[in-house]
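Entry type: protein chain
Record version: 2
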Amino acid sequence: MRSPSLAARWWPTAATVRRLRLASGLMLFTFVLTHLLNHALGLVSLAAMEAGRRLFLALWRHPLGTLALYGALLLHLGLALWALYQRRRLRMPWGEALQLGCGLLIPLLLTTHVVGTRLAHAWFEVNDTYAYVVAALWLARPDLGVQQALVLLLAWVHGSTGLYFWLRLKPWHARLAPLLFAAALLVPVLALLGFVQAGRELAIRARDPAWVQAMLREARAPQAAARQQLNRARQIIPAAFGLAVALTLGARGVRQRRERRRGTVEITYPGGRRVVVPLGFSVLEASRQAGIAHASVCGGRGRCSTCRVRVTHGAQALPPPSPAEQRVLARLGVPATVRLACQLRPRQALGVVPLLPPEVSPRAGVASPRYAAGEERELAVLFADLRGFTRLAEPKLPYDVVFFLNRYFAAIGEAVRGTGGLVNQFTGDGVMALFGIEQGEAEGCRQALRAASAMLRSLEALSQTLAEELPAPLRMGIGVHSGPAVVGRMGYAEATYLTAVGDTVHVASRLEELTKTYDCPLILSERVAQQAQLEVAAYPCHEIAVRNREEPLRIYVIYDVHALAARLVGRDPGMPER
């Protein structure tokens, strides 16, 4: 086996590169955020901006702050050029194109401002006060003021887009998205308004020639020779960056020609479509090269798993997954034939089937339990149905029906969640809940029986609250059964949720229907009683025929659900019933 080359040993992994890009990006975003907040102080006064500037400089012109800021800037630009070099094709989703385009424009447009402030201060001890800078951009060169407003927006859009790509994979992002969007909108608006207000205030002060002279003396404005050096820097920096971009694109072209000479690989997609790409392409890059719609929430960085494919043939010759890919696959609990398209770079022909629709939402990339991909588990299933709801809803207006159902579902949902269950479905006035998916069948049965009691208590409380609107107290029938069932996320598009299917589910639904026959609030199967370690010999017992079962099913009719659940309170799992 050939040992890795020296370059392969010291070159950082893709995961390390992503962490460095994120860390440097966060550092730069923090700088931009504090700078814009300082601008926003112009809405108060020019003096407030200057006071905020002192705090700003204490952080970013401190030797450590300067090292962190410009180190992050050089690292981020270098990683951006490296990412540009690595791209197999320049066609990309609009979000990635927006982020990349803003990132390439920022250094070109920002040079004048950086040279006029940071370099002027470092080389010639210019005191770049807000009065001096605003006077230059608002009065002397308003065209540069417009340019700086543009680069401000580009920097903010670039950073905000990067943050969005990172945070949208977090489980809590959907809840905080409106707040984050509001902040992303308000910060640049307030900064621009603060700059405009400062410009107006300064224009009034500039009518006094003595004030202008005092301001220039305090700023230690550069003389002619210093301005010439600064102008040369303004020309050299954009040219150097443009040359770096050109060299990157040229190196990318050379690499592509070398890859074509190395050979090609054929990838077969559903429907028999065949795509031939150079060796070294990932399956996701092959899909994009051929214009095949392929889900990829994270943009091909191996973080979200939405690009995963099932390999139909050629799996034996595939390279093993990298440690980063293996972690994602292990989290999903998928078989060995499932791989991440963005990380899979085949060297021989293979066939693949994308497993998620192209329009998949970012939520599909959020880390989920192994069983979400589909597993058989032994658990408890609870079905509940509200008695007489049709007769109750007939005389009510549609708004009143929706209001009542939402109150009912909230009460029942809290009861299920509070006892450790998962509300699986709300259908009409019915509820399906799962218990013990992770804890096991025995604890799931105990949770389900406690939930039955909690649901009835919540229903009693709701009946009292709505007593004036109800002809009679609300009643409910509950059926609980346990056993094996296939658990996984099922559905289509936005209507995808974790559910269970199988004989156990059908039996639980049948027991709920029998509560009408026996006029009782709860029916549980013998298996539930055994798993919960309850002595139920004193309760009415019946044997019923169930479809697809040769032997009858023994069930117990429970009239006092609270008393039954009380026998479970305080017991350790596995403690025998006394």
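Comment: The first helix runs from residue 6 to 10.
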